[in-house]
Amino acid sequence: SGHKMADILGPLLITVASVLGVAFAVFQFKKISAIEVDRSTRSHLEDGAHDPYEVLLRCYNAIEQGAKAFLKAEYTLCLGFTVIFAAVILFLTAHVSADEWDFSIGILSAISFTIGAVTSLCSGYIGMRVATFSNARTTIQAVLPDEAGWTGSFNTAFRAGSVMGFSLCGIALFVLFVLINVFGFFYPCEWSETEVPPVKILMETIAGYGLGGSCMALFGRVGGGIYTKAADVGADLAGKVVSGIPEDDPRNPATIADNVGDNVGDVAGMGSDLFGSFAEASCAALVISTQSKDLITSGFTTILFPLSVSACGIIVCALCSFLATDVSPVKKEADVEKVLKIQLFSTAIGMSIFCLLLALVSLPSTFTFESFLDANNERVVCTWWGAYICIFCGLWSGCLIGFITEYYTSHSYKPVREVAQSCETGAATNIIYGLALGMKSAILPITLISLSVYLSFQLVGMYGVALAALGMLGTLATCLSIDVYGPVCDNAGGIAEMSEFPEEVRDKTDALDAAGNTTAAIGKGFAIGSAALVSLALFGGFISRVANKSPGYEVVINVLRPVTFAFLFMGAMLPYWFTALCMKSVGTAAMAMVKEVKHQFETIPGLLQGTPGHGAPDHARCIKISTDASLREMILPGLLVIFSPILTGFLFGIEAVSGLLVGALISGVQLAISQANTGGAWDNAKKYVEKG
């Protein structure tokens, strides 16, 4: 009966956590909905006085409509790709050997891929809707005097992030759990000594869920990123640099596109991105776990251990979120960064305790893997506490990467202040300092990731690396809450400026936004760190799958083989090619945006001068430029990433594709951390200079 009780524990925990995640998101949304955006909030205005609330409503509606229109166009393209690629997956995975086809495997893989893709798109859409719903409400709360304004505006933006964080985690976890149970009717979670165990086939078909999430994350990140940066760069160049008007000035036709971009890139794109990391980490751990007879025969709770780690994360993050909004709320500018740090730290401590108990209850005391061998070709004996240390390493590496990122991107610390001071001698020294800061900021995160990989692999093999990735993503609900908070505050500040609220309102939103730039960099740090661990775990899953398909196949890939070594270089080049395509696309679209704004200033009488009764700027034209550019330009980088390993594998074989994947992983992580932190530092150096 003890065994049966243990078998119920995992499914029960996952179900309760999933429901709690969605319910908590609804609870936070109700809190935001209580803030009214209508005429009753501005009864104090005198007749004929400038009504900033009327402009606020117009901006609020325009941003929401622009974001919805872009996502509709982007998601139409993404769904078309999903249908075509699902068919490709069906045929490739159904071809199980040279002369054998099994279409049940192909169909299930294609279904899990499609469900992963749709869940990813839903995650991004939920985030976009709640961010556009909350931006104006954050501005309205910032109008309140003193402490009430600080607490109200911070809580509104933070709760908006919570809605996305908890709904995404709850839905993602529950959908994966349901998929495993439904597919289990065709391939049960059972071990077999005489043939390929059904559980191995089950988890291989489930792996499509992670691939679907990652494909949509790729398009969401690239499409949304090109949109937001083209609008941001275009609006700032045309407004501040060329025309000498303030950022987010209501006369600038590109300001609405800029604010739409924050929602479709930094919210919807990030949501899909971290969903992809979660799905890939879970699927990698599940696939690798099928290499262990001990884990599979220990019961359903043991098999579901990777999902239970994420379930614990939802519960811990929900409990800790009250620290930011109720127990120790923001009352002044200095509190903002402190409260966000407390969130990261408290969730990491909570997860450390919960996961220790979970590992003790869920995992057998010792277990081995078919492909994890020592120098004498004997299986390495793994332990439950070794698995816990893997999670612990990932969890605290993620937390420390967050704090390191904050140090390099917040203007409270020396690195960003140095970048700001370098501007005294011109833009060139600013660029040099900014690039140097980004490169230097990669040292500690890469060291932490390397230590996590080494320890995890030594203790539990590739399964340990996958658990470390899940540990890093254990506080995903809080990370997303902190991450979405940034663009909501950015929008709130833009709306305050366009609506011409008093200066003190913009001061509050600027302070919240400066912290938001740092939190965005922290979110990117988590995404990059977890993606590095997930990629390595997936690579382990790929190699173990090769061993499954070809019994006796050499599992160790020799780096010094000419083809492997050559493709290490090719793989290391891919992130640069990908980055070049994205940056060129942003530059082209930003140039078109600057020309459009200049054209409107020249042709709409009185717009630039701000004379009374001047013509209204044509925001729709600027939104269309960003939309068209991002949808057109996201296709080539997306195809480059998805098809380069497939073509390499077809043309040059397993060793070539292994070199390509490892090269791309090692190069991409360094480049990503460096660029993300350089951008965050420049943004906050600008804020620091503007504050005087």
Automatic annotation (TrEMBL):
<dbReference type="Pfam" id="PF03030">
    <property type="entry name" value="H_PPase"/>
</dbReference>
<keyword id="KW-0812">Transmembrane</keyword>
<keyword id="KW-0472">Membrane</keyword>
<feature type="transmembrane region" description="Helical">
    <location>
        <begin position="303"/>
        <end position="324"/>
    </location>
</feature>
<feature type="transmembrane region" description="Helical">
    <location>
        <begin position="344"/>
        <end position="365"/>
    </location>
</feature>
<dbReference type="GO" id="GO:0012505">
    <property type="term" value="C:endomembrane system"/>
</dbReference>
<dbReference type="GO" id="GO:0004427">
    <property type="term" value="F:inorganic diphosphate phosphatase activity"/>
</dbReference>
<keyword id="KW-1278">Translocase</keyword>
<feature type="transmembrane region" description="Helical">
    <location>
        <begin position="12"/>
        <end position="29"/>
    </location>
</feature>
<feature type="transmembrane region" description="Helical">
    <location>
        <begin position="525"/>
        <end position="543"/>
    </location>
</feature>
<feature type="transmembrane region" description="Helical">
    <location>
        <begin position="563"/>
        <end position="583"/>
    </location>
</feature>
<feature type="transmembrane region" description="Helical">
    <location>
        <begin position="103"/>
        <end position="127"/>
    </location>
</feature>
<protein>
    <recommendedName>
        <fullName>H(+)-exporting diphosphatase</fullName>
        <ecNumber>7.1.3.1</ecNumber>
    </recommendedName>
</protein>
<keyword id="KW-0406">Ion transport</keyword>
<keyword id="KW-1133">Transmembrane helix</keyword>
<feature type="transmembrane region" description="Helical">
    <location>
        <begin position="75"/>
        <end position="97"/>
    </location>
</feature>
<dbReference type="InterPro" id="IPR004131">
    <property type="entry name" value="PPase-energised_H-pump"/>
</dbReference>
<keyword id="KW-0813">Transport</keyword>
<feature type="transmembrane region" description="Helical">
    <location>
        <begin position="163"/>
        <end position="187"/>
    </location>
</feature>
<feature type="transmembrane region" description="Helical">
    <location>
        <begin position="385"/>
        <end position="409"/>
    </location>
</feature>
<keyword id="KW-0460">Magnesium</keyword>
<feature type="transmembrane region" description="Helical">
    <location>
        <begin position="430"/>
        <end position="454"/>
    </location>
</feature>
<dbReference type="GO" id="GO:0009678">
    <property type="term" value="F:diphosphate hydrolysis-driven proton transmembrane transporter activity"/>
</dbReference>
<dbReference type="GO" id="GO:0016020">
    <property type="term" value="C:membrane"/>
</dbReference>
<feature type="transmembrane region" description="Helical">
    <location>
        <begin position="460"/>
        <end position="482"/>
    </location>
</feature>
